[in-house]
Amino acid sequence: MKSSHTTESDPDAVRWDAVEEAAELLLQRNPRDALYLLRTVVRNDPRNPYAYYYIGASMLEVGRFDEAVDAYKAALRLSPRYLAARIGLSHAVRISGEPTLAMEHAQRALEQCPGDGDALFALGLALAAGGDKIGAVRTLHACLAAHPELEVTLEAQAMLERLGPVEEDEPDDDACSDEIE
Length: 181
Fold this sequence. Notes:
Layout: H1 11-27, H2 31-44, H3 49-61, H4 65-78, H5 83-95, H6 99-112, H7 117-129, H8 133-145, H9 150-163, H10 177-180
Helix pairs in contact: 1-2, 1-3, 2-3, 3-4, 3-5, 4-5, 5-6, 5-7, 6-7, 7-8, 7-9, 8-9
């Protein structure tokens, strides 16, 4: 169903509408069909950053991490301040084995939107992947304090359980500014 706010003079709304069905397929855990639709969207409008973002998300779902990285980069080339694409890129490069680069992208997301729960989650996972347990725990606690969506909350809690407690004499969660500024 087309949004009532969509007009030919609003290319952003048209681009969102173009990916709506594919986004629904991703929510239904059907990344392959989503990819099929998204490739059609890109053929029709190669400047649609949302299509590239959802291609990246689909590629992550099917385990094609290098292609996810490429798709997120394409989204960011078209829309450099696309926060979700920056966070997705952080996850994709972390999974690809580049925790330092993942931290850089998560930090850039936090510079753009300080205190964002999804960006804090990405940074926490990147810190954990890079071996910084204390930084990861502090950042994941900051993520939870930002009250992210349920899925991120559950994943952050699970990661905190895996990481275990930090030293009792370590500074509290409010001292995490070094990791998130």
